[in-house]
Amino acid sequence: MRLAVRGYISQRLPSLQEKFNQLHLNSGEVEDIGDEITKKSDGMFLYARLVLNYLENKIFYKGSEVKLSVNELPKELSDFYRKILTQILVRLDAQSVHRVRSIFCWIAFARRPLKKIEFLSAISFSAGDPDITHLVPTYILDICGALIEERRDNTLAFIHISVKEFLQSSSSGLAIDKKEVIVEHAHQDGRLVSLQNPLLRKELELALWTRSPKGLESGLQTNRLSNHSIPSTSLPPQDGISFMLAAYEESVKFLLSQNDYPGVSTEELESFKSQFRGSAFTCRLSSCPRATLGFESEVLRVDHEMTHLPRLQCDFPGCQNPPFVSVQALRNHVKKYHVAQPARKSIRQVADASQITFENAAEQLVNRANQIRNSGNTSQIDSPRLMSGSIEERTR
Fold first, then answer.
1. What's the rounded Cα separation, in Å, for the pair 91 and 96?
2. Which residues sit opposite 148 in a β-bridge?
3. Is 190 exposed, middle or buried (0-12, 13-18, 19+ CB in 10 A)?
4. How far is CA 338 from the centre of its chain?
5. Residue of 395, 318, 325, 332 lying closest to 364 (CA atoms)
6. How far, in Å, are 12, 147, 158, 165, 384 from residue 150 at the CA level?
7. Fewer CB within 10 Å, N side or C side of the chain?
8. Distance of CA 101 to the CA centre of its chain
């Protein structure tokens, strides 16, 4: 691991070569600096990365200052983070420090990593001002650039999970706390205070139920029944908030289908499509991460939402039928394919058997009558009761 870290440092040092040349550092001295960074990193890529970033951003007058800075750097990551944070905050006034804290809080406590444009939107509206016409500038991220980064998927994150742990500790001097942040936003945003209104609270409760597992299941299964078992790509709004969200999705879909739009440049429209394509097809289960991240199409969204429905598997040995979404569907399947039905007898066959039995009995009676006649006791032949009783006995 130590050799791998040294290789990483060797790849990064050439980017500082111009600065080192102006500070009159020769190749041997640069090599010594690389060795010292490797030693302090002790196999940690993150530490090596922080040191090199530190050297890139720090102003040096002499080559000896570079060597001294590397030698004086703390060995513990937490101490390194504290040194970087101090450099960020020392030049800021109280309002700017508060805003830096807000930046860290949004990155630390967002339900999922925010894309850059989502983050800028969140910062812009976090104060509760509804009359926002422009997003905050992107340079605010440069101030905190030593501790946060933009990933390949355009989301923002700390350079390492240990940064969040450090910022939540009291030793950071800028301790961030999730509960305090929620309370702070609740007091700053007058819209949350208005939830005391019973009508608005009722709308919110209906919206939460609509976007709950039971609400999603009810909507999808209702549409399955009304559309001949084909899942619908849009659920009927159950409340005002859901209706508003549905209208927003329709607006996004419309813009995604446009090649140009009045007052919007081609670059702006394409940027919107790349950033918000998924927001038109979000999962309608509020607890799902895809409730904000979304999908590329309606079909993908519905396929995903179907996975949230309860699934019942047939446990009959050898049955390969896909899982069922309701108990009744499972019962119908079991009754149709796995319950042995008693064989039904043909009415014609029963009648034929009865006819054969009757004919046999009649033949036996005729033979008996002949025997009696031959014996000379003809009184038994004339008894209708005897005849009928004998037939009944033989046909049973």
1. 9
2. 158
3. exposed
4. 36
5. 395
6. 19, 11, 9, 19, 110
7. C
8. 28
Distance CA 292, CA 280 (A): 10
Structural domain boundaries of the chain?
2-73, 86-192, 199-306, 310-341, 347-395
Q: How far apart are CA 324 and CA 309, in angstroms?
A: 9
Nearest of 99, 122, 129 to residue 292 by alpha carbon: 122
- Angle at alpha carbon of residue 151, lines to 150 and 154, rounded to 5°: 75
Residue corresponding to tokens 């209706």:
243
Tell me the pLDDT of the chain (396 aa) as tens digits.
778 888 888 888 888 889 989 999 998 998 999 998 888 888 888 888 888 888 887 889 988 999 898 888 887 888 888 988 998 898 899 999 989 999 999 999 987 888 888 899 888 887 667 777 888 898 998 888 889 988 887 889 998 888 999 999 988 888 888 887 776 665 554 455 555 677 777 877 887 787 787 777 776 666 655 554 444 445 555 678 788 888 888 888 898 889 999 988 898 888 888 877 777 788 888 788 788 778 888 888 888 887 887 677 788 888 888 777 667 778 888 888 887 766 665 555 545 555 555 455 556 655 665 665 566 554 444 444 444 444 444 444
